[in-house]
Write a structure and sequence with these properties.
5-stranded mixed sheet, Aminopeptidase, about 140 residues
Length: about 140
């Protein structure tokens, strides 16, 4: 089942975020993850969090943040993270989750959806391309504040 996350999902989601962080090599601590996640669970104006649930256990999540763009003609969404536990991958869960996310973003009058994927992640790029995402020539740059 794909559904929007609730504040009651906080602890289970923190476990999934920790797994993603470890796998990605960022190894963010609990307080860092909590500071990013908890406000989103309590305020949809910041973004949306979706989860994939099997037999009452969360096995994946997708985090969407809001933005606004002139080029997009209004409201934009950034798919910040998509993660499925290793033992549940290659079963269509990510595709189902992102398909539901697209439906929900349409209901929020979103004009464009962006995502970032790692260069060394061809399986992720293939999934996103199959869902209609196109590669752009833009280069993302980052500065932590």
């Amino acid at each position: 089942m794909i559904r929007q996350a609730f504040p009651a999902d906080l602890e289970a989601l923190l476990g999934l975020l920790a797994s993603f962080s470890e796998e990605a090599g960022t190894n963010f601590g609990r307080e860092h993850l909590l500071a990013g996640l908890e406000p989103m669970l309590n305020n949809q104006d910041l973004g949306l969090v979706f989860v994939s649930e099997i037999d009452s256990v969360l096995v994946g999540y997708a985090v969407i943040g809001w933005g606004w763009g002139i080029e997009s003609g209004g409201k934009e969404a950034l798919i910040d993270e998509v993660f499925v536990l290793k033992n549940h991958r290659n079963q269509g869960i990510g595709a189902k989750m992102l398909t539901e996310v697209m439906v929900q973003l349409g209901m929020h009058n979103t004009k464009a959806v962006f995502l970032e994927t790692e260069a060394q992640s061809p399986n992720s790029r293939k999934l996103y391309q199959n869902l209609g995402f196109e590669t752009e020539d833009s280069v993302w740059m980052r500065k932590a504040l």
